Amino acid sequence: MSWLYVPYKAPEEVKQDDSLLELNFDKVFFEEQEDGSVYFEYEAVSTRGDGSYSSAGSGWDNFSVKVTKNGAITGLGSRRHRKWIVHVFTWYKIAKKEINTNLSSNFVDTLIFEPLS
Question: What domain of life does the UniProt record list for this protein's source (predicted)?
């Protein structure tokens, strides 16, 4: 499976000159399915009261979900952590260049790591 590095910040909060190493992020495993959906395996993070994401505190659970092309989410944790899953899927679409942003191509290119088989 490939890895997606997901910054805790929303895409609009990341500055043009930020690098992935300067940001806090989670590593999410993903696998693209033949039907166009994406399977994600990851540890979800809890959200703070202000709606931002935090790796600290309780809320760490393992999840495995499938997200279809139209954004439907199914699987373990699909309801409880919907906000985080949508955040992950947004970064996935940015990494795949399906969503245009003002982020540098160098930054976007570091979001996906595909290990050698």
Answer: Bacteria
* Tokens representing residue 79 in the block: 């309801």
Structure tokens given for 82: 């919907």
Phi, psi of 90 (to 5 degrees): -60, -45
Each residue of 16-50: pLDDT tens digit? 888 888 898 989 999 999 999 999 998 655 555 55
State phi, psi for 36 to the nearest 5 degrees. Answer: 90, -5
Place of tokens 């910054």: 7
Range of the domain at 96: 2-113
Q: Do 10 and 47 touch, CB atoms closer than 8 A?
A: no
Strand partners, 44: 61
Task: Find where tokens 């909060």 sit.
Answer: 13
